[in-house]
Design brief:
Strand order of the largest sheet: 9-10-8-11-12-7-13
Number of strands: 28
CATH superfamily of the largest domain: P-loop containing nucleotide triphosphate hydrolases
Family: Belongs to the helicase family. PriA subfamily.
CATH architecture of the largest domain: 3-Layer(aba) Sandwich
GO biological process, one term: DNA recombination
Catalytic activity: ATP + H2O = ADP + phosphate + H(+); Couples ATP hydrolysis with the unwinding of duplex DNA by translocating in the 3'-5' direction
Strand content: 15-25%
Number of domains: 5
CATH topology of the largest domain: Rossmann fold
Bound molecules: adenosine-5'-triphosphate, zinc ion
Subunit structure: Component of the replication restart primosome.
Structural class: alpha/beta
Binding site for Zn(2+): 373, 376, 413, 416
Oligomer: single chain
């Protein structure tokens, strides 16, 4: 009734819309006739339309007139810890709160949906034995249990049994009535981890992954929000944002993986967000890896965060593999095939004869990296990016992996009309076709960015585990984390392939991949072999990778980072502009660089402007400027000097300077 509503007290709230309403404004004031809580998701009128928003604070009646909140979308408010984390992300990454909230909340949050089952339908695959913890594992568990710190780095060599440590600490969290989040770097590793956790926590696992539909994601989000019992959440970086009532543990498994950095705005690091979230909930975080990023390792030590080491393999009969290095410049080792050495082929044959598995790793997709004319040197390049096109022989296409550009393979040179078009370099598709020719009766499966959903490690995990796939060929997708009992021979086709990329993390990435791939074997009772083929056997990243020697790599890499002002010694800020013409890109980049130089401090360095590695993209020319600074705060201030135009993008803490 009219008069009672006048009599009743109005409540005023700051509401943060999940779409940007006006640049620079994160919150707006609205009123509601009943009392609401911080974190309530509501519908608010904005202009002529309506928007979803989140209540961030109660306020006193303002002097201006306010509009009413139209509707409360969810009875259960968002956990305040999650909201606080969102606000932290907004300021730490200099990103509007709306952009953060729309990342945090599921799409179609205001839709009414039929409720559905959220338990993963997963048939248990891995054989479970009751494990007695090793001395190292028990010590790690005890240290983390007793620690009063938030973040812990679990540096455990490949096969050291980090999963067991995670599970024990997850049991602790559940026993205390708190949830746990276990992050996996990509869907490839989900099945294995879900299997491990479902065995221990059959009714409590909530699984999120990138291939779920909008409705499925929403369903899982709601069941987290409404759940009164603790859950084990398993998923990619976005799993951090499930609205849990309580949280006792966050695990970031394979913390060195680049997928923990989001590449669209907000360009956040799941590692940083995990720590902030855990602080809000008073939970513990474990970053696990056999190859922690050197910058993270250094920072953890500096901050006095516990660094816990598992230095040997967990399985009592695991002896580590026998490793052989093949120098690719010595062609006498390649009498049977041009890139599959005699040693590798012999070892493959031996494993296959005894029904054991073989894994071949190569970090290049497609069939060949370079297509060129043997007569005049013309190279097939992507008109959008200026970088070489990759041959995909199965579809007779040349494809740009960044732009998606494709064209049929030319039968003659477009410049000199010569018919000798040659293809150089090795890709996983070429390896697959060669292996299929050499081993025609074997079950061969390729896993890489081209192999599609039905050939993902996740969907074919059972065949990988039980050994019915004989030969596994793949890129970095198969390099990490997987634990396969029948795997006996591992071949690295060209260990130095990644070193040619001009990026500050290329060597680290090469070291990590070699270490991780070798670590796929020698984990159990099978006496395993690894054959590492490389043109650069003496390169530090290659040598330390082969020796599985983190400390050698770390000791060599840290002074390099210091000398060239890279993390952990400097923070990085990258500005990239995109213009229709090269001239405009150069002129504007130079102009902004001059403005930035005027703001620079003594301890800071500006590099550029230079053409971006992918100089041409989507019909624009891209130029970039990089700033190295010991002060992250000052870099955030520099973002504030960005010209107000749609031509510029910035990224703070980039993990690559190439994209
Ligand atoms: N205490 C134990 N006793 C015997 N076997 C164990 C023990 N702990 C783990 N294992 C076994 O050792 C193998 C490796 O364990 P896990 O996959 O957890 O290694 P990881 O540390 O995660 O390695 P990676 O870094 O390569 O992923 C698994 O097969 C696991 O079942
Ligand atoms: Zn030519």
């Amino acid at each position: 009734m009219q008069c009672t509503s006048i009599m009743s007290v109005m409540h005023y709230y700051e509401v943060a819309p999940i779409r940007i309403v006006r640049a620079g404004a994160d919150v707006f004031t609205y009123h509601h006739e009943s009392s609401l809580e911080i974190g309530h998701i509501v519908k608010i009128p904005v202009g002529r339309g309506s928007q979803t928003g989140v209540i961030v604070a109660p306020v006193t009646k303002p002097s201006f007139t306010t509009k009413p909140i139209a509707l409360v979308v969810e009875q259960e408010p968002l956990p305040t810890a999650l909201l606080a984390t969102a606000r932290w992300m907004s300021s730490y990454y200099a990103t509007p709160l709306a952009a953060v909230l729309s990342t945090l909340l599921p799409r179609g949050i205001d839709k009414q949906r039929r409720t559905r089952a959220t338990q993963p339908t997963h048939e248990l695959i891995r054989e479970q034995r009751a494990l007695t913890p090793t001395v190292d594992q028990q010590a790690a568990i005890d240290t983390i249990r007793q620690s009063t710190r938030t973040t812990h780095l679990l540096h455990g060599v490949t096969g050291s049994g980090k999963t067991f440590v995670y599970k024990q600490l997850a049991h602790d969290a559940i026993a205390a009535g708190k949830s746990a989040i276990v992050l996996v770097p990509e869907i490839a590793l989900t099945s294995q981890l879900v299997d491990e956790f479902l065995q221990d926590f059959p009714d409590q696992v909530l699984l999120t992954h990138s291939q779920q539909t909008e409705a499925e994601r929403h369903g899982i989000w709601l069941s987290a929000l409404r759940s009164t019992t603790p859950k084990i959440v398993i998923g990619p970086r976005s799993a951090l944002f499930l609205p849990l009532r309580s949280l006792g543990l966050v695990v970031v498994d394979e913390m060195h993986e680049p997928s923990y950095k989001q590449e669209q705005s907000p360009r956040y690091s799941a590692l940083r967000v995990a720590t902030i979230l855990a602080e809000q909930y008073q939970a513990k975080v474990i970053f696990g890896s056999a190859t922690p990023p050197v910058a993270e390792y250094y920072a953890a030590k500096q901050a006095g965060a516990p660094v816990i080491t598992l230095s040997s393999r967990a399985h009592n009969r695991a002896s580590g593999p026998h490793i052989e290095v093949v120098d690719m410049t010595k062609r006498a080792q390649f009498t049977r095939h041009r890139f599959l050495s005699d040693t590798l082929l012999t070892d493959m044959e031996r494993s296959l004869a005894t029904n054991n598995q073989v894994l071949l790793f190569h970090n290049r997709r497609g069939s060949a990296a370079l297509t060129l004319c043997d007569n005049c040197g013309w190279t097939a390049t992507d008109p959008d990016t200026g970088t070489p096109l990759t041959l995909h022989a199965d579809t007779h296409q040349l494809i740009g992996h960044i732009s998606g550009y494709h064209m049929p393979v030319p039968t003659m040179c477009p410049v000199c009309r010569h018919s000798e078009i040659i293809h150089k370099g090795i890709g996983t598709k070429l390896i697959e076709s060669e292996i299929a020719r050499l081993f025609p009766d074997k079950n061969i499966v390729r896993f890489d960015g081209d192999s599609g959903k039905e050939h993902s490690v996740d969907s074919r995990y059972k065949e990988l585990y039980d050994g019915s796939i004989d030969i596994i060929i793949g890129t970095q997708v198969i390099a990490k984390g997987i634990d396969l009992p029948h795997l006996e021979t591992v071949g690295i086709i060209q260990a130095d392939a990644g070193l040619s990329l001009p990026d500050f993390t290329s060597e680290e990435r090469t070291f990590q991949l070699i270490t991780q791939v070798i670590g796929r074997v020698g984990r159990g009772e099978v006496a395993a072999h690894v054959i590492v083929q490389t043109y650069q056997p003496t390169h530090t990243a290659v040598r330390a990778g082969i020796a599985q020697d983190y400390s050698t790599f770390y000791t060599a890499e840290i002074p390099e980072r210091s000398r060239y002002h890279f993390p952990p010694f400097s923070y990085l800020l990258k500005f990239v502009c995109a213009y229709k013409t090269e001239k405009a890109a150069v002129t504007n980049a130079r102009k902004f660089a001059a403005e930035l130089r005027a703001e620079l401090r003594q301890s800071e360095r500006l590099l550029g402007p230079t053409p971006a590695f992918y100089e041409k993209q989507a019909g624009t020319y891209r130029w970039q400027i990089t700033i190295h600074s010991p002060s992250r705060t000052h870099l955030l201030e520099l973002i504030g000097t960005l010209p107000a135009s749609g031509h510029w993008q910035y990224e703070i803490d980039p993990v690559s300077l190439l994209s």
